[in-house]
Amino acid sequence: IPRLHMLRCFGNQFGEEAQLKGSRILALLSRTLLSFCSFYEQFSTSLTNTQMQMRKPFEEKLKNEVKLAKWDQQSYYALADTTERNYRKLMGILSQYDEALRNIASQVLEKEQQRGIMDDESGDSGTVDVPSDKSIFPHFQNHENKQDKNEVTFTPEKSRWRLATSLGGKRVGSIPKYAERMSSFMDKISTGTAAALGKERADDTCSAVFDRLESLRSKSSKRSMKERALVDLFRELKRNGYSPMKWAVPEEFRQFGEILLLPTPLASLDNNPHRAANVQGCESYYLRCLVELNRLRPEANMNGGQHMTQRQTQMILGYADHSVYLATQQRTVVASLLHNVRKLSNLLGVLRLGDTRLVSVRPDTKENFPKFVSCFGSAVDALGQFILLLQASQHLIENKGGLWAVQLIQALSQWVDDVGNMQKPNASSLLITESHIRQIETMRKELSRVRDLIRESRAICYEHGYLPDSCFGTCLKEIDCAMRVATVCTEPVTVSTTGGSSHQDTIIQNFESLCTNAVESALVVAQSCVVEDDDEDLIWACHKQATDQLANIRISRVASNCEEIVTELRRVCSSGEAQEETLDFCTSLSADISTLCEKMLNLVFRRLDQYIAFYRSCG
Question: Taking the model in full, what pTM does it have?
Answer without folding.
Answer: 0.72
